[in-house]
Structures are given as structure tokens and as C-alpha cells.
Amino acid sequence: MSYKAKIKVTLRQSILDVQGKAVDHALKNLGYASVASARIGKYIEVSINEAERGDAERICCEICEKLLSNPVMENYFFELESEPVN
Amino acid sequence: MSYKAKIKVTLRQSILDVQGKAVDHALKNLGYASVASARIGKYIEVSINEAERGDAERICCEICEKLLSNPVMENYFFELESEPVN
């Protein structure tokens, strides 16, 4: 069985998001006065080939902790979708 | 009314994702043989203060087209959630 993990990695709320601030300013300059508080994160899709959903979830947590996010300053969320084996 | 837009910007399928390839290799080196085809995108959250949901959707499309994505090589998807006004 193959699972597709859709992972969002976001900066913790207490961490200043300079990239988000830049987007905020750019949007103001473009005339979008109603848009505020942009925050920028990463979006990652990976395929995980495991027989059991539980194994896929465990692996997804591990790779988020070890490689895809910095747990000191980032949070991660993921969804697992089963996908047909090609 | 305030809406929170959750925007995903991903590379089109036909575009080589070098950052994703690097993540693939790193995962293989860490021993995760069952993980494959990582693709990396951006995840953006913005607040949009508009009375009508339709206006918020229109603005979200516009800022995705103009600023947040490169329509030549990227796709974008978004969800709008209404959020309580502070």
C-alpha cells in the first residue's frame, strides 16, 4: 500500500517571520489593504510505501522531526492519504 | 468578517524539483527506503478582512496570481476559513 503524506511546516507563532512581513508589505504596496499577517511555511508531499497505515504515520513523524522541520522553531502537521499502487 | 486563506503553492508536475530530489537522497541516506518522490512547495497563511466570502476568494486568487506563485511553473490551491474577528 502506498500513502501520500501532505506535510505543512510552519514557523511557531512566537518566531518573527521576516518573509511573511515582506509579503505583507508587498501586498500593501499592490493596494490590497484588507490582507494582513501573512506567514510563510513549507509544503512537502512524499510517497510512503508501507503495508500498514500506522507504520506510514510513524515514518512520517520521524522524517518531520529529523529532516523536514526544525522542532525548536517550527511546527509540522500532516495528512496521510492512501493512494492506488501504480 | 475575517477569513484565513491557507494557500499551497506547488511546482507543476513537469518541472524538475531539485530541492525534492535532495530531500529524497537525504531520506535514503537516513535509511528510509520506503519513502519516495518528495516534492517541496510553499505554504502561506494570510488573513483577509472582507465582508463577503466572494470578495475574499477573488482577492486570494489575485494575490496568488500576482505575487505568491509563478503561474508559468507553479500551481496554487487555497482554502478559505472564516475566523472570528478579534
From TrEMBL, chains A, B:
Domain of life: Bacteria
Keyword Nucleotide-binding in record: yes
GO biological process per UniProt: 'de novo' IMP biosynthetic process
Enzyme Commission code(s) on record: 6.3.5.3
UniProt keyword terms in alphabetical order: ATP-binding, Cytoplasm, Ligase, Nucleotide-binding, Purine biosynthesis
Enzyme class at the top of the EC tree: ligase
Family per record: Belongs to the PurS family.
Subunit structure: Part of the FGAM synthase complex composed of 1 PurL, 1 PurQ and 2 PurS subunits.
UniProt-recorded name of the protein: Phosphoribosylformylglycinamidine synthase subunit PurS
Gene designation: purS
